[in-house]
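User: New here, please read:
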Amino acid sequence: MLGVLCKMTKPVLIMTRPAQASRRFADSLAATTLAKLTVLISPLMQIKPVPAAINLEGVEGVVFSSGHGVENAPMGRGRTAYCVGSRTAELAKAKGWDIALVARDADDLVSLLLASPRKAPLLHLCGMHQRGNIAQRLTDGGLFTTTMVVYDQELLPLTHVARRTLESEQRCFVPLFSPRTAEQFRTELREPQNVICITLSAEIASRLDHSLFEQIVIAAEPTAASMRLALENQVEWNRLA
């Protein structure tokens, strides 16, 4: 990573997810796209485990809405899991959970679970800051579900280099994956100059001040693959402009 702003001759990809997730997303980009970018990692959030006495006795299935929930969950030992996202499902499977359903997002998960008979109760292992009201919506739909917090998402400031880059004339691409991160990004910015944001959903885009950015692009679907495609297209269009 280049720490001297004047040496950044290529457009800059500023990753704001937790460090490991940021590196994983950047590494998943096409080699041709990465070659056109300088990658700068400035996490706006870090994940911290929350000690919890997880009792699965009598629980008919566990809901995982993120990989962080899986990472802070016990081994599955063949128990049923309902997951949001393919990577969450992969992590859960590796920990011995029996994956009964893989949903695209929280809305899709609730719809699929309520569309056919399921055994209850379910347990949603989640973060301190949630979105989607999964447990409440499932319970309201007749599938009793409780929640247990197993990790916290602590907010972080932008790094000095990231802030300087965003406030320079350097072209910056900033993928944003959650409403809370988008709000933190908006709070941390002062005078962004040449920034294109790529968001996972319209809800995330709504948390930004559109007047501050050259463009805000919403991924076609709320998936990592769709975010990659949206970013790669923006990088290519920027090159041709």
Notes: The mean pLDDT is 93.
